[in-house]
Amino acid sequence: MSPIEKPTTVAHPVENQHFGTWQRQHMRWIVAALIAPLGMTLTAYGVVEFGPQAQINIHTVTQTLATPPLISRDENQQHDRMEVIRSGDTVGRILSRMGIMDQEVQKFIQTDATAKKLYELSPGRILHASSNENGEISQLTYVNGAGEQVRISRTANQLSASSEPVATQKQTFMKSGRINSSFFAATDAADIPDAITQQLIDLFASRVDFHHKLQKGDQFSVVYESEVHLGAIVRPGRILAAQFINNGNVHEAMWFADGSENGNYYSLDGRSLKQGFISNPVKFSRISSGFAMRLHPVLFTWKQHRGVDYAAPTGTDIQVTADGIVTKAGRDGGYGNFVEVKHDGKYSTLYGHMSAIAKGLKAGQAVSQGQVIGAVGQTGRATGPHLHYEFKVNGQQVDPLTVAMPEGKKLSTQQLADFAPLARTMKRQLSVAGQVELAQLD
């Protein structure tokens, strides 16, 4: 017996002898099973923490790099800028927004006749400028309402100005709006040019009272063409089609080349909208005296007033009420400066008390409905600025406010056949314009 061995005596009942043998055999397996993972774990940790480390040789490499050259400021480098003109803008204010302070150019604009055209700024148009790092302008360009490109250039420190017509393209626009406060506020909100707004008024003036009968919620749609240069409108063109809904009443019109010099406007079913005579020879005026007996303001006698007086400021345009031929243009004691026009058939009109007759207007000259033939004044026997307007049938004065006026031109059968498909197209375009406006409101 080994000195380190110590005899152990275990007492077991006879009947449990086999169980003890089984227990001793299996206990060794259980202990081995418990110790084995621990041994593996210790071995794993041993590998990680105490394994042999490879020798790493570090070499330092030094390389000389060239210093990049310093980039000097290029004072001649050009910067192109553009700015949309706002209401009330001046050239100086626009250049300030661009970050350009070139007093020499601004002084040049004040003194050079061509450069002064830059003062004719219109909101919505674009001013282009090229300048160097010091803010000196090398080129300034602007396309004005006359379709001219005004250019200021600096060459060898010398400023020069030039203007030349620009090439334009016709483009069709569709706009619509709804009146909330005023008609003009609605057209401004719809970004409709003022010239197109005035055409819209003229087109529906005989059916819509733009002075007193417009209501909140009235709607309008318009299809028009304009001359465009580089995406900017140079000149508004004519209305091609329009719709105006006033108090639930729908009014529609479209332009058609009917063989006349300038074409005419018709309803979408082909009825002429051009009256034989327009009702008002002076826009935005008031009737100060009608066709009736009155006490003459100068002679102080009771006389029949054989015309209608339209009060308006001196200088207000007077338009001829129908196509015709000028028979007289001059001065008369009572009428002062006046113009008389012979129209088709039995009709003629007279326009008196003008401050001036349109330049170049003379007897024998053809005039078109709506053409300006003079300006409101108080020449002759008149106590204040107004137009005295007479309407004659077979040489006799009649009341222009009550007389039955002749109808406008009617389309022929062939013209109606040409008109119909165009009307359908315009109807669709007006519908699209109206839907866009409603979508924007939603």
Outline the fold blueprint.
Elements: H1 17-50, E1 79-84, H2 91-98, H3 103-111, E2 126-131, E3 137-143, E4 148-155, E5 158-165, E6 169-178, H4 183-189, H5 194-204, E7 219-229, E8 232-246, E9 249-256, E10 264-266, E11 286-289, E12 293-295, E13 302-304, E14 308-311, E15 317-319, E16 324-332, E17 336-342, E18 347-357, E19 366-367, E20 372-376, E21 386-393, E22 396-398, H6 413-441
Antiparallel strand pairs: 1-2, 2-3, 3-4, 4-5, 6-7, 7-8, 8-9, 9-10, 11-14, 12-13, 14-21, 15-20, 16-17, 16-19, 17-18, 18-20, 18-21, 21-22
Keywords: Hydrolase, Membrane, Metal-binding, Metalloprotease, Protease, Transmembrane, Transmembrane helix, Zinc
GO molecular function: metal ion binding; metalloendopeptidase activity
Domain DD-carboxypeptidase/endopeptidase Mpg-like N-terminal: 83-144
Helical content band: 10-25%
Ranges where pLDDT stays below 50 over 5 or more residues in a row are 1-23, 29-51
Structural class: alpha+beta
* Secondary structure tally: strands: 22
Question: What is the 3D shape?
Answer: elongated
Provide the domain count: 3
C-alpha Rg (nearest Å) = 46 Å
CATH topology of the largest domain: Nuclear Transport Factor 2, Chain: A
H/E element sequence: HEHHEEEEEHHEEEEEEEEEEEEEEEEH
Largest sheet: 10 strands, antiparallel
Global mean pLDDT: 81
- Count the helices. How many? 6
Terminal-residue CA separation? 108 Å
CATH architecture descriptor name of the largest domain: Roll
In the CATH hierarchy, what is the class of the largest domain?
Answer: Alpha Beta
Beta-strand residue percentage: 25-35%
